[in-house]
Amino acid sequence: YTPWFSKIDAGGKTEIVSNLKGKYSVAENALPDFDLKMTVRKGYLDYDKAPATLQNLYIDFNTKLPRLNMDSLLVNIDSLYFDMGKTYLASSFHLKGLNKMFIQSKRFPI
Known about the structure:
The protein is mostly beta strands and 110 residues long. The chain is 0% helix and 62% strand. It has no helices and six strands. It starts with 7 loop residues before the first strand and ends with a strand.
């Protein structure tokens, strides 16, 4: 816990779902798959020293790690949106793999 954390007000609806599915066996070289999904709706974040409140936060995020293999890592932020004062951010981000990485990111006009 740090003192600045007590100066943050945050809220909204968040849902997080995680799965670890499959068999783990060193002898059979078997590893499970890992999935994580997070959604945020009507989120906000306010810090007493910030010039504006981050509001209308909307996130659709999911990641997959087949066989716990980092080269197969998939990260998708299909939707990221928020308002802050008179400005906003609307974007998406997709990443595949780490050694031979593929990244696609967009900022959308509203």
